[in-house]
Amino acid sequence: MSRIATPEYRRCPVTGRWVILAPERALRPIQLQHADPHPRRDAAGKGLCPFCPGNEVMVPSEVYAVRDPGTEADRPGWQLRVVPNKFPAVKELSDSSPMAITPDGFSEAMIGFGRHEVVVETERHDSDPVSLSDDEFTRLLVAYRERLKELAKNPRFTFASVFKNVGAEAGASLAHLHSQIIALPLVPDAIRTELEAGNDYYRRERRCAYCDMIRYETESALRVVDDGQQFLTVCPFAPRFAYETWVLPKTHDSRYETATDADLLVLARQMKRLLTAMDAVLSGPAYNWYLHCGPLRAANMPYYHWHIEIAPKTARPAGFEWGSGCFINAVPPELAAVKLRAALK
Amino acid sequence: MSRIATPEYRRCPVTGRWVILAPERALRPIQLQHADPHPRRDAAGKGLCPFCPGNEVMVPSEVYAVRDPGTEADRPGWQLRVVPNKFPAVKELSDSSPMAITPDGFSEAMIGFGRHEVVVETERHDSDPVSLSDDEFTRLLVAYRERLKELAKNPRFTFASVFKNVGAEAGASLAHLHSQIIALPLVPDAIRTELEAGNDYYRRERRCAYCDMIRYETESALRVVDDGQQFLTVCPFAPRFAYETWVLPKTHDSRYETATDADLLVLARQMKRLLTAMDAVLSGPAYNWYLHCGPLRAANMPYYHWHIEIAPKTARPAGFEWGSGCFINAVPPELAAVKLRAALK
Lengths: 345, 345
Hints:
Two copies of one chain form a homodimer. Helices cover 25% and strands 21% of the residues of chain A. Chain A has helices at 134-151, 189-205, 209-220, 261-282, 319-324, 333-343, and strands at residues 8-11, 18-21, 64-67, 78-84, 100-101, 108-111, 115-120, 159-166, 178-184, 224-227, 231-234, 245-249, 287-292, 307-312, 327-329. In chain A, the strands form two sheets. In chain A, strands 3-4-7-9-8-13-14-12-11-10 form a ten-stranded antiparallel β-sheet, sandwiched between helices. In chain A, strands 2-1-6-5 form a four-stranded antiparallel β-sheet, with no helix packed on it. In chain A, strand 1 and strand 2 form a beta hairpin. Chain A starts with 7 loop residues before the first strand and ends with a helix.
């Protein structure tokens, strides 16, 4: 076992918290500068962008692509492609590799097994998600689904985290539109907490907490941003971040994988409306979004409900947040919802 | 109940997470710019600094001070003072105010009751903690203790979070050296998690997990930065942040309040050594520190152990961290410890 060179999962013996140590991440190129006045633009431009057509050689071979008929893999002619991350947080191992590391009796660690993929969302060197057409945005949401289905085939992957960073303040290091997927051999803390809380609620109420939330928020309308036929866009009651917004399907399912192409076109349009409103209200903020869904291969759980959380990064968490785990948010969700509603097209 | 104007604690009905909504925080002055090349300096300077001598009128009246004999409260002549935060995250209420808000059957909220104080650490308009002399640093650590003792007298405060933000990247908005204390009517999530995990460990092993950690880390020496007679400075086994470091007293106590002035002088010197090394290795990084100790008025708990966590902010958490709760750290603590040890004076 090398503690320096290969990624590891480690569990803090005193808090129980899992982290990933990923030394190779330190080597990745940072083309978005922290001090850049426009947080989404890069200084490098197309020529040096590893995600631009013609630069396919700069990243590992594609594992999924939408491309023109007759074009070759890892060559131009694509509209969306998924490639392994060149500087992965976790790594694939042969099936015979030992998973557990037990350096001693006190601490707990595992080899940093997993798969870290990048979804390059368009061939254009664009950085704004709303520059994607409805078809392109749908293609992206379909790619999420197809990768989840594919990753589910490996029985050693338990959960896949799908997420996107827009702007340096949100942790993005490259400008060219891309999402990321990290498949893990464990269910990470935030998802485990949601599963447990959802299960507790279900045992008590015999209903899904998220279905109740949709009903409750739709009735009160205080925090609703966009009430679609299939999806509800809403600022949650207790948001960690200013203008944090969730998009939830109105039909109960814990699995994103069951969404149809038609569902995802509706979702794409609704997300684009939200992001356009956010850009207008917050002047093109940095933000993250992340898909929360059930573990890979799980049946439809009655107590969990997939959704996408969109969280602008307008303020930095400080010592209080890091030390207490409790977030201070200066913008009540009722106010955020009023402003976002007003800015909706 | 006004949902917009006064602070509130809110509990997310689907995750169980508490947050603080604090609309007034949006009004506070930001004198440290995000894009500033040196993250600790401010553009405002002394003249406009609410923490400089002569500007006492810019902040509420002091509740604690170390000052020259014969000088008046809220006038120059002080070396350290504690004042209520002018833009507090939580607010004091008359004893008759109702604590719980029950807007409806689904959500849970409480009035944002608490006290938010600022510890102005020196009369000088300095921004680097290592510019504090040993005596000044000790005075600061003593002020933490005295405020914890004072806040404990209010039976409605359950826990007080003591923390410090250095540099804009760590969430600081003003340059002049200061710490903050937020007294709460609840034990926040991160502390509750540590208390529960500590209690589980104690039931299983009949020993304090932190005492075991000290023993184990001292023996292995892999992650030890500074092994003092009274305190151990160590990079924890599973750190969320690159170069995250903890300082723990070697004698078991869950209460910071029992530390003597002599203990705190030793701690001050050891913290200054660490911060000087961190400045050298990371070129003056932004960082947070936060005191983790037991709830107010609690006896010495056998399963909890006070300590200070120091966390540089060299990378921004991204969608994966926010969405999964699992942090990716590119610097193994063994490597961080080697570098910090080498830079120790």
